[in-house]
Amino acid sequence: MSPKIELASLVIGRSTLSVGFKKLRETPGTSLPAPPQVRKPSSLKEFRRSAILDAATRVFGDKGYDETRMDDVAAAAALSKATVYAYFDSKDEIFVAAVERCLQEITDLTTPRVEAATDFPAKLNAFLITRLSYWGDRLALYRVIVTLKRESHNLKRSLRWQRPTIYFLMVLFQHAMQAGDIPEQPFEPAAWALMDMIRGLLERRMAHPNSSIEQEAAELTAFMLRALGYKRPATTP
């Protein structure tokens, strides 16, 4: 039996993402979670914080985590180090905020594209293209994230960052089951396996940056459809 997805409150850093998936199997009409509205910086404080995170994203990607200093971030943001410290207490706090902003951006991009797709293969393909494209444009930062993830003291944080996406995929698979597209099965292992395969493709892209994202997404979509026991002819948009 596939486990029911109960109401989950997913904590991401200092923010909380509430995912209303209560008894989803009993409510076939439930839609995927809508992305939150993203506000542009509306004050000097918000603008400076955003500028610091923009600069930090570039610096971490260029120099790596260990070699990045607060002075580097301040210089890249054209701010004094004292100003940077007024917003963030440490380099690690900046790094966490930068990564979590990226994760929020991915959510904001992914949800409407998946919702707009017409069937399960198209939704899965939209999810993959969005994720591969987003990190494909930020491979330097992604390399830093993956490197830190392999250190045992960072593993728990990395798993926490991935949990909202795992729930998103579980809901997507649950909807496909309710539509009769795939049989009932444990969806959480399938979601984790898909995330591992995405990571593998992105790591390969570090060595072969000119590979086709569309082709990679199509091939992985076809593989997952077979693995999940998709019952209709697969069509890739």
Describe the structure.
Keywords: DNA-binding, Transcription, Transcription regulation. The longest helix is centred in the last third of the chain and has 27 residues, at 152-178. The protein folds into 2 domains: 43-89, Arc Repressor Mutant, subunit A, CATH 1.10.10; 95-231, Orthogonal Bundle (Tetracycline Repressor, domain 2), CATH 1.10.357.10. It is elongated, with a radius of gyration of 19 Å. Residues 1-30 and 33-38 have low confidence and may be disordered. Strands 1-2 form a two-stranded antiparallel ribbon. Helix 1 (44-63) crosses helix 6 and helix 2 packs across helix 3 (81-87). With 237 residues, the chain is mainly α. The chain has helices at 44-63, 70-77, 81-87, 91-116, 120-136, 139-149, 152-178, 187-207, 213-228; strands at residues 8-12, 15-19.
